[in-house]
Design brief:
With 411 residues, the protein is α/β, with parallel strands linked by helices. The protein has 15 helices and 13 strands. 39% of the residues lie in helices and 13% in strands.
Amino acid sequence: MAKTEEISCSFCGKKRAEVNILIAGMTGHICENCVTQAQDIIKQNGVGSSSSKELEEGYRLYKPQEIKNHLDQYVIGQDEAKRVISVAVYNHYKRLLQKKAKDDVDIEKSNIMFIGETGTGKTLIARTIAEYLNVPFTIADATILTEAGYVGEDVESILSKLLQAADFDVAKAERGIVFIDEIDKIARKSDNASITRDVSGEGVQQALLKLLEGSEVNVPPHGGRKHPEKQMIKVNTKNILFIAGGAFDGIQRIITRRLNKSAMGFKAAPEGKDNGADVLRYVSPQDVRKFGLIPELLGRFPMISHLESLDAGALRLILTEPKNAIVKQYTKLFEMDGVALKFENDALDFIVTKAVDYQLGARGLRSICEAILNDAMFEMPSDADAKDLKVTLDYAKGKFDKSKISQLKVA
């Protein structure tokens, strides 16, 4: 056996005394310095990362099919929207890897706009992707935004929330995702240019342009109004992906009028199904502009996609199938109290029927479940003898009929 002082790294030749760690192999040794160099060579050549590449600061670049496959585990249906956002997100983070080529081609980002009824999964899709990519994510409500100088929040407060989500790491925040909800609520009141101040509509659209196009913005660190004495944080929005969503209630009529005007005879928009929410599949930037979003804002959302309305079959799947399905969540909550929760199929069908009747979408499923299970969640944690709860059709009906939600007017 060789003496300790004679043992050396088989790659660089350094003796045992010259390094901190010397790893023994079958026929030789390797020091920690050579291990680090080997890791760098592997990263530079992309070996061992066939399905994804490493971005700077620990982010990973997933391919569109990988992103969609992940979304499929959490979001039922909406295949077209999931494909659109998977490609957009992949291209967005791929451009962050872009190195200046000799032809100086600069890839621009593609922000996304989702149009769909409430409860169809707009926010869920954006949040699921952000969690999967491990990037900072924030939701901004467009309805509370106003022009600078008026009561409400400045548009810069959106970036304040993103900074907070990134633990005030500016570099991390500048690679994040912002979901602007209720974007349709800031539409101007008519297709004509406003002759009066529209501080929560067209004025907000104008203020958003600076954020969306990619520029350096001075942001108050803890939100609120800007003040001269406040220390601002400079954030570059060039690499922040903006996703906007809204119900755009009434845009179906705009689409239908356009389709009927541009088509004749048997080519006209079909009656029935396409006169409802599914007519959104034909949505175009022209329709969104007619609804009230200014052309400059639309130009910064080059990708517009729709989300289909959820029928009873989709709602039934949402209850039980996804990884974070509502039934699985309640089962886990009761399990933590030592109670086995089980829903009978008739009870699940009843929940879906009520969600359809009240047109509450996927969000309504949780509200109905809360109404049915609230008494049990209040009483059973204090009952040492409570071991199981079976939700039958009669149980679900009885609890629902006593709840406030049952007093709502059926749509």
